[in-house]
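Support request from a user on the community tier.

User writes: "When I paste my structure tokens into the form, the page sometimes reloads and wipes my input. The last time it worked, I copied everything first. Here is what I submitted, just in case something in the input itself triggers the reload:"
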């Protein structure tokens, strides 16, 4: 018989074994969870399958933005006027197959801005309005949003725009520019000879009143006479903000 003070050996399945087992299980579980998390953060297949994790907007999203271009110089033959354009643009986010991880394509689904021409009593420009509107459906989306830096995030947005410019009540302005209108108040309709390219450097998207700059002057021509430049937008300093 064992002495009264002798310790009784631990039987299998006793408290000590259970404590050891639970400690080991907890450590294994913690290691397993950490391993899964680290795998996800280090770019596993599941993480790479979702481009929005890079800070880019989700594919299919439609994003409307306001546009404000103050003191935009517009040259119509020999006449130079400065006007303020107000309006908006809406884009739809598409996959960019050339670089699906760091960029998306932006399809223009709505673009319209307008400005009042200087005019009034005693002025030979005659007033009127200028409206810039998207030419047609943006079938071949060339506009891009690129992530240029991840931390902190920085973007470059390149907007490639073809549009129609309509000048209503242009008689005074055209007379000053040496152009004879066929009718007294017939609108003058022009179209871009080559697409305009606007570039913005952003720290967030959608933008928040960020300034976009025109990369090259935009010539506007008559639709039936593409070789004769009627007007030129020399600069288009437009502030764009998400709605």
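"...and here is what came back when it finally went through:"
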């Amino acid at each position: 018989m064992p002495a009264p003070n002798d310790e009784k050996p631990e039987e299998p399945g006793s408290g000590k074994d259970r404590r050891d087992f639970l400690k080991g299980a907890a450590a294994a579980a913690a290691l397993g969870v950490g391993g899964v998390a680290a795998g996800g953060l280090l770019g596993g297949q599941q993480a790479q399958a979702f481009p929005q994790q890079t800070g880019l907007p989700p594919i299919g999203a439609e994003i409307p933005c306001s546009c404000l271009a103050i003191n935009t110089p517009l040259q119509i033959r020999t006449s130079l006027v400065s006007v303020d354009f107000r309006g908006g643009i809406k884009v739809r986010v598409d996959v960019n197959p050339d670089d699906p991880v760091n960029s998306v394509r932006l399809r223009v689904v709505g673009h319209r801005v307008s400005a009042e021409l200087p005019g009034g009593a005693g002025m030979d420009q005659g007033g009127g309005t200028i409206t810039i509107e998207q030419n047609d459906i943006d079938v071949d989306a060339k506009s891009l949003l690129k992530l240029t830096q991840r931390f902190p995030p920085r973007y470059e947005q390149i907007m490639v725009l073809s549009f129609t410019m309509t000048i209503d009540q242009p008689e005074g302005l055209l007379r000053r520019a040496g152009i004879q209108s066929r009718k007294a108040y017939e609108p003058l309709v022009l179209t871009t000879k080559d697409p305009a390219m606007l570039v913005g450097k952003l720290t967030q998207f959608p933008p928040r009143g960020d300034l976009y700059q025109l990369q090259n002057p935009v010539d506007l021509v008559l639709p039936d006479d593409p070789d004769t430049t009627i007007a030129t937008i020399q600069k288009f300093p437009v502030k764009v903000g998400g709605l």
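Agent notes: The reload is a front-end session timeout and is unrelated to the input. The longest strand covers residues 79-95. Residues 6-10, 24-53, 121-125 have pLDDT under 50 and may be disordered. Escalated to web team.
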